Automatic annotation (TrEMBL):
This is Exodeoxyribonuclease 7 small subunit. Its EC number is 3.1.11.6. Keywords: Cytoplasm, Exonuclease, Hydrolase, Nuclease. It catalyses: Exonucleolytic cleavage in either 5'- to 3'- or 3'- to 5'-direction to yield nucleoside 5'-phosphates. It comes from Methylobacterium phyllostachyos. It comes from the Bacteria. Bidirectionally degrades single-stranded DNA into large acid-insoluble oligonucleotides, which are then degraded further into small acid-soluble oligonucleotides.
C-alpha cells in the first residue's frame, strides 16, 4: 500500500481463500522485512489478523463438508458419513 495514495482493501470476508492467504503471506513478508513504519505495521497486522480468522473459518467450513464413503459388509459403497478429523 502506498502512503501517498491509500488503497482500499476489500473486506476480508469477501475474499476467496486463495486471495486471503496470498494477502496474508504478503503482510507477513512486509512485517518480517521490518521496513514498514510503526503506524502502518499496526494497520497491516490488524488486517492480517482479520485475514487469518477468515481463512480459518473457510477451512472449518470446508472440513465440515468433507465426507467419507461408508462401505457395507460386502465392501461395496453404501453411503457417506462425516469425516472424523480426530
Amino acid at each position: 500500500m502506498n502512503a501517498s495514495r491509500p488503497e482500499v482493501a476489500p473486506a476480508a470476508g469477501d475474499l476467496p481463500f486463495e486471495k486471503a492467504l496470498e494477502q496474508l503471506e504478503e503482510i507477513v513478508r512486509r512485517l518480517e522485512r521490518g521496513d514498514v513504519a510503526l503506524d502502518e505495521s499496526v494497520a497491516i497486522y490488524e488486517r492480517g489478523e482479520l485475514l487469518k480468522k477468515h481463512c480459518e473459518a473457510l477451512l472449518k467450513r470446508a472440513e465440515a463438508r468433507i465426507q467419507r464413503i461408508t462401505h457395507g459388509s460386502d465392501g461395496r459403497p453404501e453411503g457417506v458419513a462425516p469425516l472424523d478429523m480426530s
